[in-house]
## 1
Amino acid sequence: MSGSSTSSGASGGQGRRGWGRDGLVVARALLPHPGLWLVALAALWRLARRGWWRRPPFLPVPGDAYWRFRLVTANGGDGVSEPLRPADVMAYLRWCQRSRPQGG
């Protein structure tokens, strides 16, 4: 199983883990919680790759390698086989909300 750095992000391939599938999990978890929308935008901004406006998909999302690294450090494993869970998204965003400096 060495050298499996394929880019089969479509239809459940075992290769590279893309942001698209996880983006849907984040959106579904976040939609019913408008109080966390600004927190999520701030977190997304912090995770966005440098120069995101110069490369497709022209959105401030994390790069694939960094996103996989974050998943490995959060969940262990290889960062590909374990799906992102809505509960993990909400726990992270609530942690971000509690960790923000209060006041101006």
Note: The radius of gyration is 15 Å.
## 2
Amino acid sequence: MSEQTINKSKIIFFSIFVASVLVFSHNLYMHPVNEDNLAKDDQLVAVDKLLNGLHKDAHEGNFQAYFSRYSRDAIFLGTDKSERWTIEEFKNYAKPAFEDGHGWTYQVVERNWEGGGDTRWFDEILFNDKLGYCRGTGVVNFVNNEWKISHYALTMLVPNSIAEEIGSRTKEVDNK
């Protein structure tokens, strides 16, 4: 084989290689956008922002902003068995905690979302300096072009290794 033939073969091989790389990389970055997934991602960002804002407003003691994130008919369940409140009842309970500008602080550890359309539900693990790990669960609805919290429940997470002890203590307090 002559050197000229070898050089032509190298040029052809190199050209095919470069063309393949270009076609492959173009396909990597130019896949079609699924509009449904894009809309779903935008909605997840919006509902995450709603809850992140809720926790920020509570931490900073922003009473009006905090409660504006709930629907007018929202229900809040606290950690005590007696704490099932309409949003107006919850406002009355929470007002003293917000008056000094410090509400309460729960740090988000993890959050999961389910659902679709105008209704989503979530669960989140939170950490509070006084209560330790807690779980917030709830439902959000898209109302008048914005997401609102319709239901929120806060529970304390009790490790199984001490659950029986905590249960016994709870029964003692309930019997008093």
Note: The helical segments are 3-29, 35-60, 63-67, 87-99, 160-174.
## 3
Amino acid sequence: MSAKAVQRPTEYQRTALTKEALLEAANTLFAERGVEKTTIREINNLAGQKNNSALQYHFGSKEGLIEALHLHHYGEELECRSKLAEEIFGSGEKPNARMVATLMVRPPLMLLKSNQGYRQWATRFGHVLAERGAAMYQEINADVSADTVRIGQNLLLALPDTPKEILLYRLDQAIRFLALQSSVLAKNEAQLRGAYGALLEAMLIDTITGMFEADTSNDTTKYLKQLNAEWQA
């Protein structure tokens, strides 16, 4: 009986494998050495690419590769959040702020515990998301429609008496706060396990729930009006 012929990967499969290898290599080097100190040649070499222009061919530039990293790991969050949303909102119960906070907090913490690539990304880029907020994903043309429904719309339903503008500001601040916490926790994965990890998750959910539910102060109303007036001037 003749041996079964080994199927060679298609061009599409080879391209996907090469891009995945480049992303993994960049993630590792960025976490260890930083973006500025990592060269394109080093990324190509660690990814096993003999062609030194492989990165530019697939991603255009180091900046293009970084955008692809952001999209990849945001996609992992979306997948995790999609499954969790079914558990949280599947019963048809009216949304509340704690449900939304749980949906925000739990996916990144789950990924930090289980996904080395996500930890490496959070180590190097969590502070970037903390600085730029949700606008970072808009800048790289990420499809945020699922999060708009699961988080944004459910937050508005949970707190109908709080002005939409206030809630959107608070949501952006919650995204920044959680990104900063993820960046710190990514450097010490052991903190996420056991009783301490469970306590940490519960306290983060408490904190973000409090951010959403807090009364709007007179100062916040006053300065928000001033800011809107300045933008319209």
Note: The chain has two domains: 11-60, 70-217.
